[in-house]
Amino acid sequence: KQEVTQIPAALSVPEGENLVLNCSFTDSAIYNLQWFRQDPGKGLTSLLLIQSSQREQTSGRLNASLDKSSGRSTLYIAASQPGDSATYLCAVSHGQNFVFGPGTRLSVLP
Amino acid sequence: DAGVTQSPTHLIKTRGQQVTLRCSPKSGHDTVSWYQQALGQGPQFIFQYYEEEERQRGNFPDRFSGHQFPNYSSELNVNALLLGDSALYLCASSYGTGATDTQYFGPGTRLTVL
User: Fold this and answer.
1) Is the pLDDT of residue A13 over 90?
2) Is A102–B99 a contact, with Cβ atoms under 8 angstroms apart?
3) Interface A-B: count of C-beta contacts within 8 A
């Protein structure tokens, strides 16, 4: 059974800092991995999707990497802003559904 | 282009009641998945519908059932509500059931069971 964990559970940083969020999964036979952002009480916004054959994806200030063999992914956020404050979830897909981690709650202080 | 829409936004029920949640997929999508997200946790997969059939199911009891209509919209039904069913219910849509397809999520329905 696939299990996804995320470290840290919560993170508070001053504005402008670069930061890394971590995601680990137990079964490396995944099709893809996706990072989502969730604002309080809201739905999920897809940030980056990495196919199993890819090593990383970039979008603006965000960069996500994937190491299937070690069961790890990182989400790098450059020059953080208060508007980045949210919960960040990673999810892995084996086919027709995602298995989600518990999320990292990020607070960026002005 | 409308994204994934869900209704209602919020719902309050009492234990033992039944509830129906609705989802309209993103234009062009034919597959709908449902997830339950308890407070402070990641979403958990309930089931997926494609071609009006349940294709895959997570670890949820039979009290959770669903339906997909010819226009690809979907309903999630929960019978005999328990306090533990209180959660945010998320609907996600995609095109086909391919493993590499991105899922787009709706805003969710917040269900409170008293």
Assistant:
1) yes
2) no
3) 64
